[in-house]
Amino acid sequence: LMWAQQGATPGTPPKLRHTCEQGDGVGPYGWEFHDGLSFGRQHISDGALRLTTEFVKRPGGQHGGDWSWRVTVEPQASGTSSLPLVSLFFYVVTDGQEVLLPEVGAKGQLKFISGHTSELGDFRLTLLPPTSPGDTVPKHGSYNVFWSSNPGLPLLTDMVKNHLNSWFQHRPPGASPERYLGLPGSLKWEERGPSGQGQFLIQQVTLKVPFSVEFIFESGSAQAGRNKALGQLVGSQLTQALENHAAAFQERFERTFQLKEKGLSPEEQALGQVALSGLLGGIGYFYGQGLVLPDTGVEGSEQKVDPALFPPVPLFSGVPSRSFFPRGFLWDEGFHQLVVQRWDPHLTREALGHWLGLLNADGWIGREQILGDEARSRVPPEFLVQRVAHANPPTLLLPVLQMLEGGDPDDLAFLRKAFPRLHAWFSWLHQSQAGPVPLSYRWRGRDQALPTLLNPKTLPSGLDDYPRASHPSTSERHLDLRCWVALGARVLSQLAEQLGEAEAAAELGPLAASLEEPRNLDELHWAPELGVFADFGNHTKAVQLKSRPPQGLVRVVGRPPPQLQYVDALGYISLFPFLLQLLEPQSPRLGPLLNVLADSRHLWSPFGLRSLSASSLFYRQRNSEHDPPYWRGAVWLNINYLALGALHHYGHVEGPYKVQATKLYHELRANVVSNVWRQYQTTGFLWEQYSDQDGRGMGCRPFHGWTSLVLLIMAEEY
Questions:
Q1: Which intervals hold domain Glycosyl hydrolase family 63 N-terminal (predicted)?
Q2: Same domain (yes/no): 195, 333
């Protein structure tokens, strides 16, 4: 679907809306309901217009069944005197030899499109005549069509913009005509481009708001096996189906998450439904080749090797943000699936299976999946290439742990099949990211120490600009990575035991025990002078960015010079042994971590735990002239979720910190939920991160990736 308001600004072409873009001025928008399978309802605010798009899928036949869409366009404000003229563009595109045939009526108008592909068999797509919203009274629409070869998915918007250049008259009976810009094409066969690159067929319908239009897909095999009395899923039948699905969604939602029963307000329940629906509605199926830089085995020598195109692969995955990150991210996906799994375990098995299908021969999975031309067109060039030496937090093990503890037979059957890949992935992580001393680990792929960077970033860690040792070196020991590996060893050894994989269990059990041994963790990462766990490396606090014309901001290193020491950067990383519940309830290290967590001079804010201590020299500091702070103070939902899970755990087991953990749990949960809800009420969006100073949403939006964890926080599911 594309759409445009005609004549909003006289003399300028209408703004054509198509893909979600961060700065397009559309919004708020998002899914009110989406069940991840067969039903959804989305609202979009666009200036003076409010669009509602909703669909129902009706299973049947051998190819997935039929589906029906309804798009309703209304004025944003009631009682508007001059109602705008709006064009909707429904298009069908193929990317190969598939057949599309427009069926043309007596007056040259398009009746429907019939087609055939190997995956879908025979099908028919029909655009029904527009009506007034909520009834069957037809409304007069003006039609235009355009049929060409497919220029490539990233170029569809521009192609339509460039062809939207001829004036037509919209003439409803009994009303004065109005001019609009339309597509000048026809359905003559010879106007198509060369075959083999696919087809692009677009129908434009233009009329006055308010109106509804229905667009239906009918599967040949579903029609053949169906009772003829059922008929098309349109009109009042579609309305009834949408109402039934909405009621069923709400009932299933309460059965699954029990927010009403747990005393949450109707507004908070609605937020939970939106969080889930936005995550499910963002799930995509991607296919294509990614750019990968092979591992040369020598750090810093990567530039001598050219990136290669990986073989084409499919990926069924959630996305962090439809507008800004519309693709799969490895460490985000583990958090996404914690939510999805509680709603539909089958979807989680599909997603995890696809991600594990990306494994290369060594056990590596790329952290960002940019598959095909359409995905590549949305990514800055410097982020296109994935490097085989670089890891990412293995968060897919979080839903794997849920499966293991849940004991569902289908989940266990899946894990049995997935075990060799999970084991290979973990083994690659454990071996390739090994640190300078036994049982230490180091993220490969820190940025080079450039004169313009305050602290070279560590993108593979997921915590991009979180401060690490000031001078990158092979002597570094990264606390968060060691904790992820410890969690991985724990989960994989439990899984191997349960599946009877004796050889793997014999290897993983002792590794897990060594990594969880408190003395080993203390020796490598407890910093007595800081009173917390920390990274270790070649470090000095005496670094700052100073203005040096004409270069701009430049890093200046003062005294004392860097030396091997624990890194003074109190924040999320300091908490990792607690966050991943690697500490015993009696651990003497737990108390100091709870104290810094609860201290407003450090991590506590009224809106959630901030990512970096408010007392840190790096707090809210830019990393370069063009790089604002990211993980340097803002509140992030994924880490707050882990913190709440850990507080919940330590508050439910016997130990000296049980009472403190319980108190902090209730206060933190209330702070996080109330702020996410307040920002949603104000802006209509879930956000990537939240300010630790005033709670406002920051970064990109809508962010229905891990911010959707607010639902599990409300449901107290950890």
A1: 1-128
A2: no
